[in-house]
Design brief:
The protein is mostly beta strands. 8% of the residues lie in helices and 26% in strands.
């Protein structure tokens, strides 16, 4: 399942709260008003940045809750 890497922008929250969240990819092409990270954090449109790669501290709650790939979804390198 594809996921987005999202972090709240500087100034929206303090630096210690700018963790890298994992968010399920929306089902359609519309821009949602808010995203919900796997940890339950609600991230409203305009208050976060989309990351191309992990940056900063990862959200431990998201790491514990992100679904594991099903067999056959992993690349040949696994």
């Amino acid at each position: 399942m594809p996921v987005l890497l999202v972090r709240k922008r500087a100034g929206v929250v303090g630096e210690t709260q700018r963790t890298c969240h994992l968010v399920p990819m929306p089902d359609d092409d519309r821009t949602p008003l808010a995203l919900t990270a796997y940890c339950g954090e609600l991230i409203h449109s305009g208050e976060a940045e989309l990351l191309e790669q992990p940056s900063g501290m990862p959200c431990v709650g998201c790491l514990f809750r992100v679904p594991m790939p099903r067999s056959g979804e992993l690349g040949q390198d696994w």
